[in-house]
Amino acid sequence: MTVSSDADRQLALIVEVQDLARELGIQVWLRGGWAMDFFLGRTTREHNDVDWFAWARDAPALTAAFAARGFVRLARAPAEQQLDYTAGGVELGFAFLARDPDGHVIVAGGPWAGSRWPEGMLETPPGKLGGVSCPIISPEAQIEIKLMTPTWMPHRPRRAKDLEDIERLREGLAG
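^ thats the sequence. predicted structure below, dont judge the formating
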């Protein structure tokens, strides 16, 4: 697939966010379409945005760092659940994680606070794409999230691209 200028800007922001996370001493993981591409090692389709997971405890540091870099905050979800930004025409979303008393990764805030994310979601090697390495959520978790989203959020039906992504991820796991 030919990489568009949008994809180039998104990839540049992926590198910038990783550099920023390292500077701040925090962890971030790609999720969504870019996580799939980094797992597969190739760009599979155009992406509308770049989705991330981060620990809720790191939200203040991220907020300050993004403001200092001129990222524009978008008010879309409760701040305890997710922070959304735009930078250079690219939208970035940071969904927040926490751990329950038993150590399971859970949704940190918002209407699904306390709900568990898939087991092992954060325990996969970094993905690689075009010479860039980036932490990603596991492909198994990516599949589970794409399969379960319409059940968890009935107002959000499964999209054709989700079915295609599930098939690509399954092929990547089998290969």
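The chain has a mean pLDDT of 93.
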